[in-house]
Amino acid sequence: MTTENVSRSAPEKQFFGHPRSLATLFGMEVWERFSFYGMQAILLIYLYYEVSRGGLGISQPVAIGIVGAYGSGVYLASILGGWFADRIFGAERTLFYSGLVVMVGHIALAVLPGVHGVTAGLICVALGSGGVKATCSSLVGSLYEPGSDRRDAGFSIFYLGINVGGFVGPLLTGLLQQNAGFHYGFGIAAIGMALGLAQYAFGRKKLPASQKTAPNPLEAGRLKYYGLAVIALVGALLGAVALGWVRADNLSDVLLVVIAIAAVAYFAIILSSPRINTEERRRVLAFIPLFLTSGAYWALYSQSYTVITAFFDQRVDRNVFGWEVPVGWLVSAQALTVIVLSGVFAWLWTILGKRQPSSASKFVIAMFVIGLTFLGYLPYLGAEGAAMPLFMLVLLLLGFTASELCLSPIGLSVTTRLAPAAFQTQMMALFFMSLALGFAAGGSLGAFYTEANEVNYFIAMAGLGIVTAVLLMLCLPFIKRASRGTE
After folding, report:
1. What pLDDT does 16 receive?
2. Where does the Major facilitator superfamily (MFS) profile domain start and stop, copy by copy (predicted)?
């Protein structure tokens, strides 16, 4: 008997007309995003604030690079999390263990002082969040039969959890950071993840049995070889750190180079494979400009967690009727704009129907919009003190969100459509690699930002968005021909 049939025979066990297990996964996502975005909202200022203000006193350019490298690491870890789910634990156990690792990371940030706490905390949160990202969505899909007319509605409810957690988490961590200190903010993030794990522990037994085991388990005796490879990789990394090749001030640069090499190798393996035909090879080639555009887009979007956060802290008038808005609330404002605009865009694409732009054209729109949004900062640059009104920053955040809704949800869809039959999972890994590439590039770019060169910096970011849009526009005829039959 399928999960969906069970749901129909026991309506009292449903969650807004959906399988009861959706509530378990919804809750897990809410609390994981609560902790993730809550911590990220105050991470940058924790790194560069002076010790007298509770921070670590790291230089702002280095702090921006660290945050960029951390964001890149989350998306790289999602590939690793998917491998553990497919080959060792299954999606259900991988999700639970990943949540535990996230909680340990937040505890480390809350209780361990100095650089050691940040290092341990960020590594754990990145690894754990990558595992959650790789498994939670697939578990939602497993609750429905193929072709179920309730699947899209179920995912809509689930994704609401992302935005609810992303909105509420920074509100609390930002308030605690401002009124009690950074470690209290990190502590509430750990408590949030603990609540998510507690409710998941009660509901996980009712998740589909197929998700409790690995679908493609490792052959007997193979695990030890992977273990040796991990030990060798960690040893090489520690050696690179000891020799000074990998440092806090070049971490995002190192990741950028490694990810770029890995992406080129990945594309070469797929394109040279005898398991794909000529038509599939053309589609993979058509995916390359979309991959590069996605990387450029996330390099720009990631500035909202680095450069724009620093700008919000230092250059925006955050005073509202005599009360100062916490810096961490910037991330909550972003989540709120997503909640507001996601319904607008869903309505827009529905109204346009077959007249809506192609997926690749939506990428072009996204790049133009985010590029123009950076130009919106220019009138407030080069001035002393808090020059930008708060309402103006919120309007510019709407530009970031509008661009995100033209690219982020479209990217997953177009990746699955252009992927060869033999490389469906690997192509999805490549898509996540474009996000990792973008966040690493964003960290490297953000390290060049200073108040002295901010005008040139924002013009350069706008130029990157607009030029990328124009270049992709030139590729549209080829992409359209190569993807014929997939739209």
Report:
1. 63
2. 24-480
